[in-house]
Amino acid sequence: MDSDVIIVGAGMAGLSCARALQQQGIDCRLVEASDGVGGRVRTDTFRGFLLDRGFQVLLTAYPETRRALNYDALDLHSFYPGALIYTDRGFQRLTDYRRRPKEFLPELRSSIATLSDKARLARLSSHVTRRPAGELAEDVTVLEGLRARTFSERFIQTFFRPFFAGVFLEPTLSTTWRQLEFVLRMFSTGRTALPAGGMGSLAEHLATQLAEDSVTLRSKVESVGPGLVTLGSGEKLTCRAVVLASEGPEANRLVPSAQSPPYHEVTCIYFSCSSAPIQEPILILNGTGTGPINNMCFPSRISRSYAKSDAELVSVTVLGNPKGTNKALNTAVRAQLRSWFGSTVESWEHLRTYRIAHALPSQRPSHASLGSAPQEPGIFACGDYFESASINGAMASGRQAAAAVAASLGARNGETSPDTAA
Ligand SMILES: Cc1cc2nc3c(=O)[nH]c(=O)nc-3n(C[C@H](O)[C@H](O)[C@H](O)COP(=O)(O)OP(=O)(O)OC[C@H]3O[C@@H](n4cnc5c(N)ncnc54)[C@H](O)[C@@H]3O)c2cc1C
Predict the structure, then answer these.
(1) If you count Cβ atoms within 10 Å of the first and of the last residue's Cβ in the chain, which end, N or C, has fewer?
(2) What does the pLDDT read at residue 367?
(3) What sign results for the dihedral spanned by CA atoms 101, 102, 104, 107?
(4) Ligand 1 centre from 323 Cα, in Å?
(5) Distance 249 CA to ligand 1 centre (A)
(6) What are the sequence ranges of the domains in the chain?
(7) Which of the residue ranges 144-153, 331-340, 413-422 would you say has the lowest mean pLDDT?
(8) What DSSP element (H or E) covers 395?
(9) Are strands 28-31 and 3-8 parallel, antiparallel or unpaired?
(10) What CA–CA distance (Å, rounded) separates 92 from 83?
């Protein structure tokens, strides 16, 4: 027997599963196809810049990351509690007034939101933070939920659409309202942050909590059967249980009874510049509904570590996987940035473009039934598509899979659980 449990994939779900198994004294091994841990949460160092593989943030209120990560060691740097929105009347700011009450009066004349919109948003934030744990919100789309709460159409289109399209990586706001309530609760009760080492440091931090040699990198799993994992090299590994912790489509390839929801794609483009036109550590949204950009920011204004000392990093998010070459996309993005910030944009240097095919699983109403664990004995599955599509959801799913594996191994050992003991 090579290992009691073999976990396929060392993303946040696989790492969290391994951590929970090892905490219970169960021997496990992670087999990862790529050259590093983290899956979608990885950071590349390129010419002195930290490039997250797609713009991401840590919401410090996430229960799973609070449980497993040492925030002090990660050296977190926070965003301004609000957003800057580019509209047909230029940039306008929207602040979370519960955190920055002094901003309320200066923003009173903002054209993005009416006073009623602001009151409704405050009511919604306080409602989601007070909803008792376990009580489910309604399972309608985000757009239906916003309209039912009578937010003005201008506020929906200029703020909610780019903001939540950036969170759920889909522009139609057809994600379930339950996810909106979860995410809004996290935004409202914690900070939005980047770790000094880049988002990938979350995964590396989790990996350091595992026993030495728990992870085998550069080893793609080709096939899986009960108690047997075959690698691309032809090597066969034996075990008592397998956990599929890959993205849904790959889990489905390995074990067809593991269903996968469809995924949203996203493209992230990085530039460097000598001076950021916006100095605040703030998220910038495209409230115009036109052009390729959905959201952007200057990560080095949030954490200096993201850029070398004489430069700033620019991160631009484009939803989907636009047709055409990276060069054509960069030209279109640069043209839009120029209309926002002026000719200074011409001097910005393109660093890299990341096109991410399986960025986030779709979470439409009733999405919970779309991904389902395989029905094969000894084979388990986890990943963000079983929970909320987020770092928190991936980690929660990994921990839950570990509990199921531990129960099954205990049962197969003939152990009696405390609940059933006479
Ligand atoms: C651009 C972008 C922005 C995001 N923004 C946020 C955000 O701001 N906040 C947030 O909380 N979440 C965000 N997310 C979502 C979050 O990153 C994911 O939900 C989470 O990381 C998923 O983790 P996972 O372990 O389920 O899957 P993955 O990270 O996809 O891990 C799967 C792993 O399995 C490996 N693998 C696949 N097939 C095989 C095989 N055959 N053999 C061996 N290994 C295999 C892969 O290489 C990978 O390492 C974002 C995601 C993206 C892409």
Answers:
(1) C
(2) 66
(3) negative
(4) 23
(5) 12
(6) 3-41+199-261+365-412, 46-195+264-361
(7) 413-422
(8) helix 391-412
(9) parallel
(10) 8
Ligand 1 center to residue 176 CA distance, Å? 20
Q: Is 125 in the pocket of ligand 1 (CB under 6 A)?
A: no
Q: Are the CB atoms for 343 and 231 separated by under 8 Å?
A: no
Summarised one tens digit per residue, pLDDT across range 249-269 is 999 999 999 989 999 999 999
What pLDDT is recorded for position 110?
74
Q: What are phi and psi of 5, to 5 degrees?
A: -130, 135
Q: How far is the CA of 11 from the centre of ligand 1 (A)?
A: 6
Q: Is the CB of 308 under 6 A from ligand 1?
A: no
CATH class of 46-195+264-361: alpha beta
* Domain 3-41+199-261+365-412: CATH class, spelled out: alpha beta
**Average pLDDT estimate for 375-398:** 94
Q: Report how far residue 14's alpha carbon sits from residue 245's, in angstroms, rounded to the nearest whole number.
A: 5
Q: Which three-class secondary structure state does DSSP give residue 214? A: coil
pLDDT at 416 over 80: no
Nearest CA to ligand 1 atom 37: 246
- Pocket perturbation via mutation, ligand 1, pick of 65, 175, 235, 246 by most ligand atoms within 8 A of CB: 246
- Whole-angstrom distance, CA of residue 77 vs CA of residue 34: 28
255 Cβ closer than 6 Å to some ligand 1 atom: no
Three-state secondary structure of 325-393: CHHHHHHHHHHHHHHHHCHHHHHCEEEEEEEEEEEEECCCCCHHHCCECCCCCCEEECCHHHCCCCHHH
**Most informative mutation of 6, 12, 15, 40 for ligand 1 (most atoms within 8 A of CB):** 40
The pLDDT value recorded for residue 87 is 95
Helices 391-412 and 12-23, axial angle in degrees (round to 10): 40
Polymer length in residues for the chain? 422
Mean pLDDT to the nearest integer, 38-61: 98
CA atoms within 13 A on the CB side of 280: 11
**Common-topology check for domains 3-41+199-261+365-412 and 46-195+264-361:** no
The answer, yes or no, to whether any atom of ligand 1 lies below 6 A from the CB of 384, is: yes
